[in-house]
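Hi R.,

Here's the chain you asked about this morning:
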Amino acid sequence: MSRPFASVRARATLAATLVVAVALVAAGTAVLLSLRSNLLGEAGTQAERSAREVATGLAFAKPYDDLPLDVDDRPVQVVDEEGRLVAASEDLERISGTGVDAVKPQPAATARDGGDDDDDDAADDDDHGESLEPGEIGARTTVSDGSATIDGDTEDYRFAAVPVETEDRGRLTVYAGAPLSAEHGAVNTALTVMLIGFPVLLAVVAWVTWLVTRRALRPVEGIRREMAAITASEDLARRVPVPDTHDEVARLASTTNETLTALESSVERQRRFVADASHELRSPIASLRTQLEVAAAHPELLDLDGAVEDTVRLQRLAADLLLLARLDAGERPADARVDLAALAREAAEGRRGVRVRAEEDVTVAGSRGQLERVLANLLDNAQRHARSAVEVSVRRDEGPHGAGGDGQTAVVAVADDGEGVPAADRERIFERFVRLDAARSRDDGGAGLGLAIARDVALRHGGTLTVRDTPAGGALFELRLPGA
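And the predicted structure, written out as tokens:
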């Protein structure tokens, strides 16, 4: 596959992989945060349950030795309202995160004598400002994270602090912890799975995208290869393959074939035009050369009128070919206002048997010279085939014009009383170098470019040129142009 299509595949694969990677990272982060939040909430619930179990014993005035302080080897502290540790788990060696770092209960006498100011501040913080009756347990629970060492094992814990009001020991605060090892383990496991699974999944996505893109671009490569072969062979009769997918690639192939068909038709028309032009130019040039050669040898035999006639014919043919070349090159007409009624009268002036009926102020926007050529060509054609009379009419028509829009349309009709144009030939006569000599015996041998030029100029001005029969049987050429 060529480099441009390979780069398309690479860009598509990279884009798909990046999109999936971003989605996976976002989803993985959300899963990890949700998992951690749920596990932390579960640990806090367990810690609160343990703290309230101990607080219930204190509310019922149980001695410290009868409290469930060593259940499941979880750290438990009981602190009085002055911040002194009055009870704790038996194997507790170190603790942090509760605000009270002491691990061994202080004797009652010492507890009454005084204590650490820092522990007092911690106890004040745990009071919550909640007013409790003797034997009542606080409804609000404070949660914090810390660590503790129990019997030589150090772990992270989530601590819950629950206040309780006792009758004989005053306000006490119970700290109980629940281990976070399950939370850490679950999060680490999920993270490990993601770190291993995400790259594998991204590799699969990249591989599948690469294969799918290659399959999707295979018809495009076929089109490119065939177009390269057409360019190398210059055989415009060849066509690119159209896949049976009925998708954008199939439409691209169909459009490419339509373009090739139009290009082949254009090239063929150009070749035919060159051949016909060469043929048409050969006759007057050969005739003129013969006359000049004869005149050079025998001046008394010079046919001056014939030479002038051949020269004029050659001049007109050259002018027609030049105008057609400009039209084929896409020359845009001027944007001047042209009065078709005045133009028709000027074109008919001096012509025998031509009558003009025109409404006033029928104007269009365009090239006066080109429109004058159209009227002259139509009148020349009509006079060649008319028996006795030609009629030109100019009018306005409130209807859609040739460009397909709506509004006022200028109409110029040229009718003759000749034999008319057969229905089968009404489009063919507008082709270049076409002459219906058999059907129109009065044709004096024009080059067959006048009607072709007239239609091309009409189309360049956004209009149309058509032919049909008159009620009397002659030909009626109708030029329709958008009004100015």
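The longest helix spans residues 3-59.

Let me know if you need anything else.
M.
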